Every structure is written in structure tokens, then in C-alpha cells.
Amino acid sequence: MESLYLLIPLSIVIAFAIGIVFWWTLKSGQLDDLEGPSWKILHDDDQAENNPAQLTAETQKNPEESRAKG
């Protein structure tokens, strides 16, 4: 019985913490687009290979990184 005096307030505090974290994720926009990032992964490399201007712009930004790649 004495453990309930600790466990009930602790569970209430944890529930409020979960609610605050969930509210923060909603307000910061982290749950707005769930499918967009998965499609970006599939299409980023294809666009960079077909667009030489984009590749040269990337090598001008980071020439050491482009040398390390190939």
C-alpha cells in the first residue's frame, strides 16, 4: 500500500511529460509530412546523376568531399 503513494504521483508526472513531448512535436511540425522524406530518399540520387550542373555546383561547395568520393 505504501508503494502506491510513490507510484501514483510518479505515473501522473510521466503522463504529463509524455503529453508535453507530444504537444511539442505537433507544434514544431515534426508530424506534418510522414511520406515526404521516404520519397525524397528514392529520388535524390536520380536527379543528381541526371543533372550535371547540380553535380558541379556540389563539387564547388565541397571539393575535398567530392575527391574522397571518387
Walkthrough of the structure:
The protein folds into two domains: 1-32; 33-70, no CATH class. The chain is built from four helices and no strands. By secondary structure, it is mostly helical. α3 (52-61) crosses α4. Helix content is 81%, strand content 0%. The longest helix is centred in the N-terminal third of the chain and has 25 residues, at 4-28.
The poorly predicted ranges are: none
For the sheet with most strands, the description reads: none
Structural class: mainly alpha
Q: C-alpha Rg, in Å?
A: 24 Å
- What is the count of distinct domains? 2
Overall, the morphology is elongated
Number of helices: 4
**Can you count the beta strands?**
0
Distance between the termini: 67 Å
Portion of residues in beta strands equals under 5%
Helix content: over 70%
Would you list the SSEs in sequence order as H and E? HHHH
Short description:
By secondary structure, the protein is an all-alpha fold. The protein has 2 domains: 1-32; 33-70, no CATH class.
How is this fold's topology laid out?
Layout (H helix, E strand, L loop, with lengths): L3 H25 L7 H15 L1 H10 L1 H7 L1
Helix pairs in contact: 3-4
Key features?
70 residues, mainly alpha, 4 helices, 81% helix, elongated
